[in-house]
Specification:
alpha/beta, 16 helices, GDP-Man:Man(1)GlcNAc(2)-PP-Dol alpha-1,3-mannosyltransferase activity, globular, Rossmann fold, Glyco_trans_1, about 45% helix, 6-stranded parallel sheet
Length: about 450
Amino acid sequence: MVIVAFIHPDLGIGGAERLVCDAALALKKQGHIVQIFTSHHDSKHCFNETIDGTLSVKAVADWLPRQTFGRFYAFWAYIRMITVALYLIFLSDYKPDIFICDQISACIPILKLNRQARIIFYCHYPDMLLTKRETLIKKLYRFPIDWLEEFTTGLADTVLVNSNFTSETFHRSFTTLFSIQPKVLYPSLNFESFKQMDTQKRKELIEAYLPPGKEFIFLSINRYERKKNLALCINALKELKKLCLLKTWKKVHLIIAGGYDERVTENKEHYLELRELAVSSGVSENITFVCSITDEQKVALLQTATCLIYTPSNEHFGIVPIEAMYMKCPVIACNSGGPKETVLHKVTGYLCEPKPEHFASSLMTFINGDKITTTMGENGYDRVIKNFSFDAFTLKLDSLSSAHHSIYRKEKEKQHYDGVTKVKGWLQEQVQLCLQCVFAPCLKEKGHY
């Protein structure tokens, strides 16, 4: 049995959060003790497993700001993650054998203060590539953050990535970490969360989003962020309108279901931008915008849709195409990044250049082809079962955790018998006690930790 602590910045709704929950469920299924620590957890904007008692979640340091005057998001994200690590090391009674952190590596030096515990860092994608540096001030602001990311990532005992694409990007971005070979651990699905539902229940869940008389239902599921390129599916629908007869066009409908957080300014702004684009493109009557769907609604939509439109370019992995294929829903995605490893062109869907006319052409094949949705859907289901099953994910993660636990035990025994190490450990404990006296009042202020 291994005691595991997951550390994640913001446990909301997204691909990274889904992976953390699935990893926690996988290790718990194998009999390990698991707890998730995060800087923010909103019971109204999270996955069910984190609020129904399935997974234990501890929110720490939510009293810290997320930004300052609409800026410094990265700085505060790092501070919040470091604070979670400080809580774990100095204040928490939870003593893990293994730390598994993701997205932000800045917490790793703090976690290293636990001398025996092993640290696994899951790199979804280098953070330094997720922002632009258009001004000198932005370059100066990002320089220490980028350096810290690369340095602290190298301190992890093992680095995991979500795809071969991300592995290649890792080496191109972190040039000083050439000796580290990340291990690929594909995200997977917990099939129990994606069961087929009866027609009546499905209709009840999505009737508010789907006008009557619609036969060709196209679906987009992504966060309302500009980098997700959701405008592409609206522009593709505009091009599709040119290809369709009027009577066919009346049967076409697009549902854009996105992760939406009221705290995130970009979510609110981009949602309005997309609605305006739909109106100006003349396709607003054929589009429904939905914010933050539930797990049940997502399953119902995937089960109903003719196909999924997945618009991000160079996506690190992309869990939504996997979810769609498991629900026998074909996928149209950009021919780059993670989807090139998950979607088989003309077998489980289409891989296209990120241009509206290319996506529209692929959409038209589903309108013209009677059995293409069924055939590609079955192919996609078989591919997920063979390559991205929760059982395969569980076995690989469990094997990795057990191997690290074996090293942990050896290190613990070594320190138990090594007199010099014991003295060093005692000195370090005294330092930790002093630091605890400093940080405890801050972390416990107003009961926020």
